[in-house]
Design goal:
Radius of gyration: 22 Å
Largest sheet: 5 strands, parallel
Strand content: 15-25%
Order of helices and strands: EHHEEEHHEHEEHEHHEEH
Structural class: alpha/beta
Bound molecules: S-adenosylmethionine
Number of helices: 9
Number of strands: 10
Distance between the termini: 36 Å
Strand order of the largest sheet: 2-1-6-5-8
């Protein structure tokens, strides 16, 4: 089970996400995902959360005091100590790129805090003082951390027991240990022949050992870059 909090300026973005089936399954089984609004705890005028960068330049930067207040209000301890209780992950374009290894690592954590940035991003002291990790979903820049947080949560929650209708789907899928970290093999379904495009004969043979061997080979081939 996982207790996940997402700090954001747009908590209602997560309404759709929380309604998705595997997420609902995980919540029914005792996990939680809550969106926390940075603005709920800011004491700045007009519920402000950001300011212009020292040294000049474009955009607005999420303030360290705002994030400090938000973490303290949520966890009731000094924000610097929150990382001792749970993984505190800032979504940043330049962070550790999310891959299967990191997903498995995060899924093993009982509690996770995700911090979404906006505009120019975080005051660096937020990353240095409050966060245990910085995670990127790829080397490109999104407008905000919300979609990145959903990507992280989607990948992590489907690892939790019971989240998927069929647990076997997660056991043998791309990058899993069962496939030695390689991409998954190709799938086919009916019709067996369409416009002259035929399904590989081995898959119709009913010979389980041959099918398993073919799938392993295909998976390895894909891993070597040959689709
Ligand atoms: C417009 S981006 C800030 C970009 C920042 N000025 C830079 O050049 O690295 C605003 C926020 O979106 C989120 N974000 C954007 N791209 C991301 C990515 N590839 N992975 C994770 N988070 C991302 C981060 O939370 C970031 O603080």
């Amino acid at each position: 089970m996982m207790q996940a909090d997402v700090f954001t300026l747009f908590p209602n973005w997560f309404d759709w996400f929380l309604g998705q089936r595997h997420v609902r399954n995980a919540l029914t089984l005792g996990s939680s995902v809550e969106a926390v609004d940075y603005r709920d705890s800011t004491t700045l005028a007009g519920r402000s959360v950001d300011d212009t960068p020292f040294g000049g330049g474009a955009g607005m930067v999420l303030r360290v005091d705002v994030v400090d207040w938000a973490l303290q209000a949520r966890y009731g301890v000094d924000s610097v100590a929150v990382g001792q209780q749970r993984r505190v992950v800032a979504l940043t374009p330049g962070g550790r790129v999310l891959d299967e290894e990191l997903v498995v690592e995060l899924a093993a954590a009982p509690a996770l805090t995700l911090l979404c940035g906006r505009y120019e991003g975080f005051d660096e002291r937020i990353l240095e003082r409050f966060c245990t990790d910085q995670v990127s979903i790829g080397r490109y820049v999104l407008a905000g951390g919300e979609l990145a947080a959903m990507v992280v949560l989607d990948a992590v929650l489907r690892k939790l027991p019971g989240a998927l209708g069929d647990a076997a789907s997660a056991h043998e899928e791309s990058f899993s240990a069962a496939l030695e970290g390689q991409p998954e093999y190709p799938h086919y379904t009916r019709p067996a022949e369409y416009r002259g495009w035929e399904v590989p004969e081995v898959l119709l043979s009913g010979h389980h050992a041959r099918v398993a061997q073919w799938r392993r080979e295909q998976s390895r081939k894909r891993g070597e870059g040959g689709r």
